[in-house]
Write a structure and sequence with these properties.
Layout: H1 3-12, H2 24-27, E1 32-35, E2 50-53, H3 55-61, E3 87-89, E4 95-97, H4 100-108, H5 114-166
């Protein structure tokens, strides 16, 4: 496969496994290019048939093709199918199939491997912490504005007290 085509597929899937979502930086290596429809079953090197994926997902998918292999369920294509309609990520990091195709997708690719569940839980925690950090930063900005407003009010009050004290008879 030409390097340009491989780079195009990699870019198209944002350097993530199209099946499990793991980024190549998380695995410390570039990922593989899978023929969604295997060449053994008539698949081509057309970019629409290629999927960037990790070695483990590629291994679990294997040469499966629904037209020839039991259980004859079409494997979802991450570049063509809306996976969110078929698969949901639960709060505990497990993927749950919402449709029969989604259930098969999760099962065939073994997408609830302990390492993937841990990866998704860490990603969920990171998202939560990032949101909490952003909220904390907004709160700090609000408090800083409030402090500035209070300082201005204090200075204004001090100026008013000074003006009034200068205007009192018998006081220096």
């Amino acid at each position: 496969m030409a390097d340009e085509l491989r780079a195009l597929v990699r870019e198209g899937f944002r350097a993530r496994c199209a099946y499990c979502g793991v980024h190549e930086d998380a695995v410390g290596a570039t990922l593989t290019v899978d023929h969604h429809r295997p060449r053994a079953h008539g698949g081509t090197d057309d970019v629409t048939n290629l999927v960037y994926c990790c070695a483990r997902c590629n291994e679990h998918k294997g040469a499966y093709w629904h037209e020839q292999d039991p259980p004859y369920v079409r494997l979802l294509h991450p570049g063509r199918d809306n996976l969110a309609q078929h698969v949901h990520e639960s709060d505990d990091g497990h993927l749950v199939g919402l449709t029969p195709a989604g259930e098969f997708f999760v099962q065939r690719l073994r997408l609830n491997r302990p390492q993937l569940v841990a990866y998704r839980r860490a990603r969920q925690a990171e998202v939560t912490l990032t949101a909490e950090l952003a909220a904390s930063r907004r709160r700090v900005e609000e408090l800083e504005r409030a402090v500035l407003d209070l300082r201005a009010a204090l200075e204004s009050t001090a100026d008013e007290i000074e003006r009034r004290s200068k205007g009192r008879p018998g006081e220096p």
